[in-house]
Amino acid sequence: MVEHEKLIIYIEDDPEMINLVKIILSQRGLKLIGAVNGKEGLDLIGSNSPDLILLDLMMPDMDGWDVFQRLKANDTTSHIPVIIITAKSQPIDQLLGLSIAKVDDYISKPFHPQQLIDSVLRVLDSKKTLNL
Fold first, then answer.
1. Phi, psi of 90 (to 5 degrees)
2. Which residue of 28, 42, 77, 114 could cross-link 71, Cys pair, CB 3.0 to 4.6 Å?
3. Taking the complete model, does pTM exceed 0.70, yes or no?
């Protein structure tokens, strides 16, 4: 059985960070499309139906929590797993993300490439298990 190529959308206002994550994940056969702001990200998600969303929190105009709330409030996107990748690394930020907002994972910048790969593969694998 051949699975379709996994598509990930990364909403991050730093294009260099998008390129770095794209390089890391492409080595695992994962396709990543970047969006440099929340509105562009929501538009991409609506037209591409990704398997996973990577989301920065601190962005101008629409922050990551606004994007997250819009995704979860929409029936067509509420099921898509979200991993937060942010410089907000205080324990309270992680607690809010994981326990209250119920994001699928929370990665603090700077991160080790293997940490990102492990998180992405774990979340994608748990999604696949739930769809059986």
1. -70, 145
2. 77
3. yes
CB atoms within 10 A of CB 122: 13
Contact between 72 and 45 under an 8 Å Cβ cutoff? The reply is no
Residue 26 confidence (pLDDT): 95
Q: Which residues partner with 55 through β-bridges?
A: 11, 84
Structural domain harbouring 56? 7-124
Number of domains in the chain: 1
> Could you tell me the CATH number of the domain that includes residue 78?
3.40.50.2300
* Amino acid at site 50: P
Is position 105 within any domain? Answer: yes
Per cent of the chain over pLDDT 90 is 77
**Residue 51 CB partners (closer than 8 Å, separation 6+):** 6, 7, 8, 80, 81, 124, 127
Asked whether residue 90 is domain-assigned, the answer is yes
